[in-house]
């Protein structure tokens, strides 16, 4: 294998490991590829320049760009253990009889699965997958917002969806998002869904943001709201201490899943 092919193979393998684990360590990669830490840092720098990862102390974490280049099945399996723990913890904040607004995302879909353990929930969602997951529960009322459809990611959006959403008030909103940043606030990869998320914040008494650690300290494409607009941030571990500190200084709660 010539030099260039070795580099391409190594960097592709790094991206695959990120997709599986959500993070990589320089020492781990150096041992795996039998190369120096300097070479690995060069690989990570090149991949960061292309937007595929974010370097952190001792390694790197997944970015939204890399996540959204995966196919649907890969996105569902990415960081699955962490997202399942987050889903279980977030679901504990929901009580029987609550009215919920839920956006689209792999994490909110996992939360929806956990919500089947509750009774008498009222759910308004723009996620087709969430609606299908919960519609079979006999004590639930599920409303799927109409409007334009993003077929690739299975959610509705646009003026019709916003008009329908504006008719409802909820106890809690549950949002799966792509970026949580101390300065940029709460952001999403999907610009067309950001007005939906923003209205869900406005139309609920409390908001739960559910996101794995790789989303902290990261700014995605489209702004949703300032950090102070959400009440609970459920994640699996600290990745960006500055963002966690900024949330807590606002009097909001960061909850770490078991």
Features:
258 residues, alpha/beta, Arc Repressor Mutant, subunit A, Rossmann fold, three-stranded antiparallel β-sheet, 11 helices, 15 strands, elongated
Overview of the molecule:
- With 258 residues, this protein is an alpha/beta fold.
- The chain is 41% helix and 24% strand.
- The chain has 11 helices and 15 strands.
- It has helices at residues 3-21, 26-33, 37-49, 64-68, 72-77, 80-91, 106-115, 128-135, 159-165, 194-202, 241-249, and strands spanning 23-25, 53-56, 59-62, 99-102, 122-125, 141-144, 148-150, 155-157, 170-176, 179-181, 185-188, 204-210, 222-225, 232-235, 253-256.
- The strands form 4 sheets. The protein has a 7-stranded parallel beta sheet with strand order 6-5-4-9-12-14-15, sandwiched between helices. A 3-stranded antiparallel beta sheet has the order 1-3-2. A 3-stranded antiparallel beta sheet has the order 10-11-13.
- Helix 7 (106-115) links the parallel strand 4 (99-102) and strand 5.
- The radius of gyration is 19 Å and the shape is elongated.
- Helix 2 crosses helix 3 and helix 6 (80-91) crosses helix 7.
- It starts with a helix and ends with a strand.
- It has 2 domains: 3-62, Winged helix-like DNA-binding domain superfamily/Winged helix DNA-binding domain (Arc Repressor Mutant, subunit A, Orthogonal Bundle), CATH 1.10.10.10; 73-256, Rossmann fold, CATH 3.40.50.1360.
- The model has no long low-confidence stretch (mean pLDDT 90).
